[in-house]
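User: I'm new to structure prediction. If I give you an amino acid sequence, what do you actually give back? Let's try with this one:
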Amino acid sequence: MPGEFDFINWLTSQQKTSELVQRAAGDDLAILKWASKDLLLVGVDQVLDGVHFDSKAHDPKSIGRKAMNRNLSDCAAMACLPSAAVVSVALANNVGVEYAKELYLGLKEAGDAFDCPIVGGDTASWPGKLALTVAILGKSDGIEPVTRAGAKDGDAIFVTGSLGGSLLGRHMTFAPRVQLARKLAASGKISAMIDLSDGLSRDLDHVCRASGVAAMLDAASIPIHEDATAMRRDGRSPLEHALHDGEDYELLFTASHCDHPSAIVIGRIGSGSGITIIEGDQQRVVRPEGWQHSL
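Assistant: Good question. You get back a string of structure tokens that encode the predicted 3D arrangement of the chain. For your 295 residues, that looks like this:
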């Protein structure tokens, strides 16, 4: 029966060198040649069976793609180019090498779409559920990174797509908005940006808190995905799903103006704190209710 070292040998056979990757997996550390003119951006994200996916319902390749795509979406949030990734996997004891290979191939396919190779990591098995941790390296490559902290009074609030109902399947199949983020940031007009992983209400709250501003949303302008309408049978309105569901992985950004065809204005930044929303002739406070890890 193939064991850990057979799997490691297979992983090593999947690696290749490049101008960036001088030595990939196979030693204790990978060796990367970093251009001195570039800023290095580093992030890490974890996905857990039963929290971010269901291994009984989702195949290993889909799980791997999601784990990598979440990190690629973080690169989009700051308008950097993904460059390399390191992956740590804790496999459940009851899965075999073929499962592990499919998991890796899902990770690799997602990374390859953005020229982001996996250059190392670690694999183990244990009695618990599947857990994956991806650390990603990104480069500025001539575009200043966009943070959450630059939103200004008077800026418009934009999103790049329809929101809500991602649990019906889009949370596993989304496409990171890396190239779109780069185009938006290259204009020099974007003041703050974040990817919508935790939900519109919570992620906008992150921007407001980091920037020291308030936000006013226009309910009629928020693009609501058809999946959010399909989920209204749970008693929540499509708007509530669009505000709070999360895992849409669209971009939310602020700017004085933006004429990109993917940019949809949903509100304005103001002075003060908190988020309010206008629905018809009514105005109410929006409390962040998206995803929040319990500790």
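You can read the tokens as a compact description of the fold. Here is one thing that stands out. The radius of gyration is 20 Å.
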